[in-house]
Design brief:
About 30% of the residues lie in helices and about 25% in strands. By secondary structure, the protein is α+β, with helices and mostly antiparallel strands. The structure holds zinc ion.
Length: about 350
């Protein structure tokens, strides 16, 4: 399947795949991987696309998690409302009145996340933040029996409803699940580029499962791939909006790919990190240095796999993380594709051995 960057991002953003329920997005990626390498799966469901270059070693692992944050049906009330569990880290403040889709065996059911309107809150309730426990989903069923008839069952997955669209400035894109379908799209585009260029290694593109509930697919797929070096492709927070003081902005839309120097889960291999920065400079690829003390990625477990794996995270800045409406810039997306491709091409046996000295 050959798609433009925007077509690919739309297809991946609109595919539904919360943690543990990644089948739909995995099928899209399977199509994308078909002409790009040899495909396998680990036993948890992560999809591996191995593309051999001029030589087989070293093994370079690119990962992007394919799950998105969502919910699961916990129970139905006698009046036909759905109470739910989060799959991944939701902020309850971004949920009230948002549309969702319940993925039932009889098809998708649309609903809205309900909560008490402010008119009905007691003064004490008005002072408190909304909690996930107080929210519910209204699918328009008049009773539990009717909801069951619609096909809703405990354990069904629930996902945000959010149409993907370029904004008036068509380089700026709005959509759901950019965390981390953007990383998946970067991976597909990098594999595309490597099909046309030579590289002295094997590249394993891995679309992992269940990242949002604890980096689970990264653990099993890293064991399966046994990489010599790893690059994690991720959406990372952009904080260039009102309410953040200028000196506190560490990631801006449109200013380039994010090279992570530190997050709570990992400090990258310094030689690998320096190679990435040097490459960005040499190739004139816009980049930003990302150092944060919140939010970790799959690199947190990958770099500790077996006897250790030199690893780094290359990200795309995303506004309004973990919500129905993320915003990214196509310029940053393309910078990430260019940077990862240029780095992978340099990862031969000698370069990777050099990371360990
Ligand atoms: Zn993520």
């Amino acid at each position: 399947m050959k798609l433009s960057s925007v077509e690919l991002l739309k297809k991946l953003s609109e595919a539904d795949g919360p943690s543990g329920y990644e089948k739909e997005v995995s099928d899209v990626l399977l199509e994308c991987f078909k002409e790009r390498g040899e495909i396998s799966k680990d036993k948890l469901g992560s999809l591996i696309c191995r593309k051999k270059g001029v030589v087989s070693n070293p093994v370079v692992m690119l990962t992007a998690h394919m799950d998105e944050i969502g919910f699961m049906v916990k129970h139905l009330t006698t009046d036909g409302f759905i109470k739910f569990l989060p799959l991944g880290g939701w902020d309850s403040q971004v949920l009230s009145a948002k549309r969702v889709k319940v993925k039932t065996s009889k098809g998708d059911i649309i609903g809205v996340i309900g909560s008490k309107p402010s008119h009905l809150l007691t003064p004490e309730e008005a002072k408190r933040r909304l909690t996930l426990e107080t929210l519910f989903i209204d699918i328009g069923a008049t009773s539990k029996g009717e909801a069951l008839e619609f096909g809703v069952k405990i354990g069904d997955a629930i996902v945000p409803v959010s149409e993907f669209m370029p904004l008036r400035n068509s380089r700026i894109l709005l959509g759901k699940a950019f965390d981390n379908r953007v990383g998946c799209a970067v991976m597909v585009k990098v594999l595309d580029r490597l099909n046309k260029e030579s590289h002295n290694n094997s590249v394993c593109g891995v679309a992992t499962v269940q990242e949002e509930v604890g980096l689970r697919g990264a653990v099993t797929s890293t064991f399966a791939v046994n990489p010599d070096v790893a690059i994690v492709l991720e959406c990372r927070i952009a904080n260039d909006f009102p309410g953040v003081e200028k000196q506190d902005i560490y990631s801006r839309l449109g200013r380039g790919a994010l090279i992570t120097f530190n997050d709570p889960g990992m400090i990258p291999n310094i030689k690998l990190r320096d190679l990435v920065v040097k490459t960005a400079r040499k190739e004139k690829i816009p980049y930003q240095i990302y150092t944060v003390n919140t939010g970790s990625t799959e690199a947190g477990v990958i770099h500790k796999s077996r006897s250790g794996v030199p690893a780094i995270v290359i990200g795309v800045p995303t506004r309004y993380f973990h919500s129905h409406g993320g915003i990214i810039s196509l310029d940053d997306f393309e910078a990430a594709v260019n940077l990862v491709t240029a780095v992978v091409k340099q990862l031969d046996e000698k370069a990777v051995q050099g990371f360990l000295s």
